Every structure is written in C-alpha cells, then in structure tokens.
Amino acid sequence: MNRPTARLGLAGVTPWGRRAYEYLAFFGLRADQLQGTVLDCGAGPSSFTAEMTRAGVDVRAVDPGYRLSIPAMRRLLAAAERQIGQALATERDRFVWDFYGDIDGLLAARRQAADRFFSDYPQGRATGRYICGELPRLPFPTSRFDLALCSHLLFLYSRELDLDFHLSALSELTRVAVEVRVFPMISLDGTPSPHVDACRQFLERRNVRVAIEPVPFEFQRGAAHVFRAWRPAESRPIRRDGTT
C-alpha cells in the first residue's frame, strides 16, 4: 500500500493548519465540553493545541511531520498555500463559503493557525505537547485520552489510504482514546468515502459504538457530518447538548 508517511506534505498529504474555532465547528464541540485529556491526531500545523492549552485544556498533538525542522515545515506550508490557493480559485464552486466568506478569508485563517502553531511549537515540543508519531501505531498507552480528534486525514484521503489502513487507524484511535471523532467523511474529490460503512461495521463488531452526526460546518459540499466512535463500557460520549 502506498500511503503517506507524514502529515506535513509528504507523499501527497497536504499540510494545512486550522484554528481552534474551526475544530469546534466541524467536530461539533464547544470549548467547555473539552474535559479530561484530548489528542489531536495528524495535527500538522494546526493551532488547536496551542489555543486550547492556553484555555486550560490538557491537549497533545501527534504528527509524523514533527520530525522536520521548523524551516522545513515553513517551506512546505508556503508551497501548500500557493498550490491550494490556485486550486480554490479554479474550483470555487465545489465549496460552501458561508464560514470563511471568500478565499482571502480562508487563507487568513490558515496563516493565523500557522502563526499560533509556530509560536507555541518550540516550547511545546520541548515539554512533550507535540509528539512525533503516526497512525496506525501511536506512542501512547491504552485509554490515555478521553477524546481523540482526527481531521482531514482519514476518509478524506480515501484513494491514498486504503481500507486496511483506515481499519488499523480507527482500531488504534479507539485503543488510546475513549471517544474518537473524525472529520470530514468525504474524499478529496467531493464524493462520500467508500470506507465509512466498512469502518463502522468493523468498530461495531469490536463493541465500539458509532454515530454519524450533523455539525454546524460545511466547506466541501456535502461534508457536514462527523464520524464518532466510543467505548461505552468506559464512558458515555459527549452529547450534542454538552452532557455526558
């Protein structure tokens, strides 16, 4: 299987950081729901960990790209911005612009995320907040986290990451975290991921509950649901009203 070996722009996986407010929207969360320990898996240059740490949340970010130097990460991000900016300009109608307004608004959010990430990264890397690691084998003990978030990797890269990888990755995520959320559930080409049903059945056979729920976010057309999985023997999931 030819799969990406790092999140930061290696083997076809584009580095594209996101802000905390974006995470809360597309994962269907509120900041006051983030109790316990949280993992951002495949975090790349997102600023979720930096912002939530400042808000008092216990967050860790894991990504294989953290083996790279800061200058190397910045170069990859600059190349990604040029590439994606050009693509968005020619394929604007494939996206819903209510959340960002326009391409400039989207790119501004990405630059803000990168600025916050790089401001936090040196200290966070030294203190263990940013960890080099990758799916499908994560460097954490079982049930280390209450909640694991994985954005814009699983399902999105359905052509690059085959079903076996998805099953192994979700098995690992549900090992290290009581609850897992994955967004989006469509592929890069805008079609529903062919792996969703098989992943759901696989997890349910392992006594992991799965729910697909609407979220107040849609950028790729049709990408307005989050994939949630949790182990009910250990904890109840976070409900949409914020209770557990």
List the helices and strands and how they pair.
Layout (H helix, E strand, L loop, with lengths): L19 H7 L10 E5 L6 H7 L3 E5 L7 H21 L12 H24 L3 E2 L13 E7 L11 H14 E7 L12 H10 L3 E6 L10 E6 L14
Parallel strand pairs: 1-2, 1-4, 2-3, 4-5
Antiparallel strand pairs: 5-7, 6-7
Structure at a glance:
With 244 residues, this protein is an alpha/beta fold. The protein has six helices and seven strands.
Features:
globular, Rossmann fold, 7-stranded mixed sheet, 16% strand, 244 residues, 6 helices, alpha/beta
Give an account of the 3D structure.
With 244 residues, this protein is α/β, with parallel strands linked by helices. It has one domain (20-230): 3-Layer(aba) Sandwich (Rossmann fold). It has six helices and seven strands, in the order αβαβααββαβαββ. Strands 3-2-1-4-5-7-6 form a seven-stranded mixed beta sheet. β4 (145-151), α5 (163-176) and β5 (177-183) form a beta-alpha-beta unit. α2 packs across α4 and α3 packs antiparallel against α4. It is globular.
Radius of gyration: 17 Å
Largest sheet: 7 strands, mixed
Mean pLDDT: 90
Q: Specify the overall morphology.
A: globular
What would CATH call the homologous superfamily?
A: Vaccinia Virus protein VP39
CATH-assigned fold name: Rossmann fold
List unreliable stretches of 5+ residues. 1-11
The secondary-structure class comes to: alpha/beta
Number of domains: 1
Number of helical stretches of at least 4 residues: 6
Please name the CATH architecture: 3-Layer(aba) Sandwich
Sequence of strands across the biggest β-sheet: 3-2-1-4-5-7-6
Question: What amount of the residues lies in strands?
Answer: 15-25%
Indicate the percent of residues in helices. 25-40%
CATH class assignment: Alpha Beta
The topology string of helices and strands comes to HEHEHHEEHEHEE
- How far the N terminus sits from the C terminus, by CA atoms, comes to 39 Å
Q: What is the number of strand segments?
A: 7
